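G., the chain you wanted modeled:
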Amino acid sequence: MTTTYRDRADAGRLLAEQLAGLAGEPGVIVLGLVRGGVPVAQVVAERLRAPLDVLVVRKLGLPTAPEVAFGALGPNGVRVLNDPLAARLGPEEIDGVQRHEQAELERRERRYRAGRPPLDLTGRLAVVVDDGLATGATARAAVQVARQLGARRVVVGVPVGAEDAYRLLAAEADQVVCVRRPADFGSVSSYYDDFHEVSDDEVTRTLTTIG
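Predicted structure as tokens:
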């Protein structure tokens, strides 16, 4: 399989070209999904001359299949449930998963938002950016969280994604920009020469740099 991008910054430059039409739109804010989406989002924000922030979303995965989301948690107490899946679980199962993910969400919020105000998307055009789209569960949850945080419009941008995930996401977001949707998708990491795990320190450095 041919590698598409050198690293996340390279991917961000190509994605930014396709999102350039949003430059100058009122209320634009670029949100990197932590952690891998942040370096991509940084480049997009610079191109759009828009503020950059992070959106912390934690999937609520089925106990027997953690990659299958029955809901998601976001900042400011936002909880989104996929009712048909959540209905399969008892209250104790839901509470157990939620406690675990809430603790990690709060840890990341404390780390990334230290000294910064809570995320408020009221009336904003939220551009949610990640480094790739595999199942689409996290991005779909992010769209719902962004709406509950007040966004008037939600656009999702990714450098590469699976066709099935793209179609599911397109039914929920106002717009999805996916630079490449290969038929034989495989995994997100297959499309990067450098796909290192983005650390907490890398995220906080980025946010400190952009103020």
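The CA atoms of residues 140 and 169 lie 6 Å apart.

Shout if anything looks off.
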